[in-house]
Amino acid sequence: MSEHYDLIVIGSGEGGKYLAWTLAGQGQKVVVVERRWIGGSCPNTNCLPSKNEIWSAETAHSVRHSAQMGIGVESMTVDMRRVVERKREMVRGLIDMHLDLFRSSGAELAMGHAQLTGPRRVRVELNDGGRRDLTAEKIVLNLGTSAEIPAVPGLAEAMPMTHVEILELDALPRHLLIIGAGYVGLELGQAYRRFGAEVTLLETGSQIASREDADVSGELRRLLEAEGIIIHTGVNIRSVRGRSGDAVEVSVANEDAEWSIGASHILVAAGRRPNTRGIGLEEAGVALTPRGMIAVDERLETTTPGIWAIGECAGSPAFTHASLDDFRIIRDNLAGGNRSTRDRLMPYCLFTDPPLGRTGLTETEAKALGHDVRVAKLPMARVLRSRTTGRRDGFMKAIIGPDDRLLGFAMLGAEGGEVMAAVHVAMLAGLPYTAIRDAIIAHPTNAEGLNALFSAVPRA
């Protein structure tokens, strides 16, 4: 006998859980099916756990350099078991919080593997045994993504770590070799260097942080190399021998040479693939894009009426806050609205130290679109707050278009994400850059640097 619901959500990640809690709170009968991670990857294996351990690494770095602040520390040790346990304590608290929210909202949580058996039918193989057959008026696919292991000879056999395994590593690697210099590779590479490991980054592209302007990428590389991280860009990874956690040898090549790098551990941070296999999408008539994402329109509706997709599996930007906005779109449209994903202004942060906060277009993107741009830059050393903290690395950068419009902003510097948010809101409001230039901003803060930055915009 099948059980009927108003809404079935497959996956308990950000957008899906908020939709479930909201509609259940409105009196609808809702069930969320989750295979493993209650609340999705963000509180369990991705965003929050990684930032938790990164903060521990930043603390170690601060203690190691405390003499510069006039504070003497006779000795310092890094206890990776305690680092990991601190992270686990946070995750346990987050899971408890999610369970409370499921209970208080009235949304049911079913732990098991879901598979579509028709346009409005879902079969659930329960984790604790047994099976349930469900039907629903509405189905939301909130499947997420998983780390991709590149097809390099010997790499899969070497049992490399992904972001999931490294955040459970309770012993410091002697030499951590990272494949990929995007968010995960850069953040965790710096963290493990600060914990005390040797770190080598391999990137097949021409620069680290590939989506950023060359000046941002170059400054970030300079800062990481100054901490002792070895970075190779523009390389081809030929093969891997050995086993991660014991000893590995990686053969790499560029246009000029071929050589081998020995390490104790490998972290793969080279992209992600959608979790769309084995879900039965074809049984429900749900189409995929050439990249394997679920094909959706700008309202996040799939090719099958009554089925929506949300978050990364639907091609939305790979950020928790993007998935949350996907929830708002579906919620409001179900209530008769007409919201879409078109022309969303999507901010993001890279949690290196210093962090990078960015919103809008890069200089490269703006010029490629044919915009007549003006660019302003301000070294963080010119922001008076940096004189008090000693955190003087990096710069602010603004992209100004015609009619004094703000097209984009980047800040590689202390509190970059927080300062970026102020510019982001100004862009949402359609304010000209002069509004920030002439605003009264509290002194001495890093945000105060915005006055100087926008005062340096070249004349049109």
UniProtKB/TrEMBL annotation:
Entry-linked InterPro entries: FAD/NAD-bd_sf, FAD/NAD-binding_dom, FAD/NAD-linked_Rdtase_dimer_sf, Pyr_nuc-diS_OxRdtase, Pyr_nucl-diS_OxRdtase_dimer
Superkingdom field: Bacteria
Keywords of this entry: FAD, Flavoprotein
Record has Ubl conjugation as a keyword: no
Residue stretches making up the Pyridine nucleotide-disulphide oxidoreductase dimerisation domain: 346-450
Domain FAD/NAD(P)-binding, first and last residues per copy: 5-323
Cofactor: FAD
PANTHER family (UniProt xref): MERCURIC REDUCTASE
Family label: Belongs to the class-I pyridine nucleotide-disulfide oxidoreductase family.
Name of the protein this chain belongs to: FAD-dependent oxidoreductase
Organism: Nguyenibacter vanlangensis
